[in-house]
Design goal:
By secondary structure, the protein is of the alpha/beta class. The protein has 14 helices and 13 strands. The longest helix is centred in the middle third of the chain and has 15 residues. It is globular, with a radius of gyration of 21 Å. The structure holds ligand F0G.
Amino acid sequence: MTPAYQLQCIDCHAEYDPAEIIYTCPSCGGLLEVVYDLPAIEVDFHTSGECRSVWKYRSLLPVDIEPVTIGEGGTPLYRLGRLTLNIDANASASEIFVKHEGLNPTGSFKDRGMTVGVSKAIELGMKTVACASTGNTSASLATYAARAGIPAVVFLPGGQVALGKVAQALIHGAKVLNIRGNFDEALRLMRQVCDEYGFYLLNSINPFRLEGQKTIAFEIADELGWEVPDRLILPVGNAGNISAIYKGFKELKMCGITDSIPKMTGIQAEGSRPVVDAIERELEAIEPEQNPETIATAIRIGDPVNAAKALRAIRESGGLAISVTDEEIVEAQRNLASLEGIGVEPASATSIAGMRKLLADGLIDADERIVCVTTGHILKDPTEVVDVCTKPTWVDADIDAVRRAVFG
Ligand code: F0G
């Protein structure tokens, strides 16, 4: 059964009919979130049997129709072994997990948001869905729009999106524009276009999309026997996911299913760290970074739209925010791949790089139970992978040459 819900402004708390097509508060401009009358809801997380998926948690999701789905969620939670030994002797005693969201159908966590967001678009009778994207959102949106049979329009920061993601948006039939500008500019333009043409905006400013992403929290707690980790570490770009996961953990606690909330710990790249700056300098709001730069193109974002929600998530949960360098990102990506068999794109490796740095600097305890979220699959960005790895050795098709090369 679908729960009763409203849209509510996180700043002035004004409430709105969820059928209104609004992305920010018409009264004060604040961000919106979906609120439920939680005590009135009979939370039933067992309707779809043992199989974990986004829709297992339907009793806390705001969709009233048969959802547009391709089997999202149900991603593995791996306990790390060799990598923790490599990090720090003390950490080997701790429990460090990786929730590998790269194993969603299109290779990123965005699918959790899109199954809910595109379903909502259909429910609301919207004719076209749209987003600006550093790549993964557009890949996911194009896929779910194809599944739903409606057109998708996406704006990309031209020349700054990883190859695999562009390929996905194209093959699934989206109209793809390469904007001569960065992601923040692309999103500003897309918001204007959505207002003018009535396209349904499915960036993470859309509060329904974030409802799908909060199921990452539900799944982690579910997999840990309805226990909550001490800390969650994840990359921060447009700052939607950290806000969504925090909301998920809060709702579990408010429903009496769990009894604590993890310390939400956001990691940004050194050249693109407005949220980290705001936390370090105790600012009320972020100061946008005009020229964000990092190898982790997915999170090359200077003006995250969900910053207000993310700052609250980090502060209220007693969490942290730090940045890591591109070198640390690449090293973490390589270690995760070669020591654990987990292949992730650079943005995702920021979780691992951040965890390593926090442990090394003594900012977190080695006995904490930590979950790092890896947000996207390694195949998303094949160009970067080939660039940072040793090239294959060319060898003649001759057994002696091959022997020499194998043992050389
Ligand atoms: N990791 C990956 C792989 C991403 O693609 C993104 C965001 C993030 C982390 C950050 O998540 O924005 O919720 O803080 N990608 C967006 C996109 C911006 O357009 O694909 P966030």
